[in-house]
What we know:
By secondary structure, the chain is α+β, with helices and mostly antiparallel strands. It folds into two domains: 1-52, no CATH class; 55-97. The chain has one helix spanning 57-95, and strands spanning 13-19, 24-32, 37-40. The chain has a three-stranded antiparallel sheet, with no helix packed on it. Strand 1 and strand 2 form a beta hairpin. The longest helix is centred in the last third of the chain and has 39 residues, at 57-95. The protein is rod-shaped and about 85 Å long. The model has no long low-confidence stretch (mean pLDDT 85).
Amino acid sequence: MSAQHFCRRCKYYDPYYTCELRHFKKTQFGWCSQKRKIVPSREGCGAYATRAPQCHGEELTRVALNGILNELAEIRSIMEERSHETEETDVQHLRGV
Length: 97
């Protein structure tokens, strides 16, 4: 069986962990929600489905902040345009035009 079809890479597989002194350690077994039983991580079956890639928290934060910064830049440019428009109308009123 090829490595790409091992249970540990299946979306239906949830690995079990043991609590060590300072961290958690992944075991060689986990729960298969399709078979509804505990299975070894290196086993495979016909219900295999590829797990969606997981984005890391730091990457998600960077993408979200980039989007917020872009929105703020757009808001700033709109406010600057409105500020220039009001300055022009104030100058025209002072001149009596």
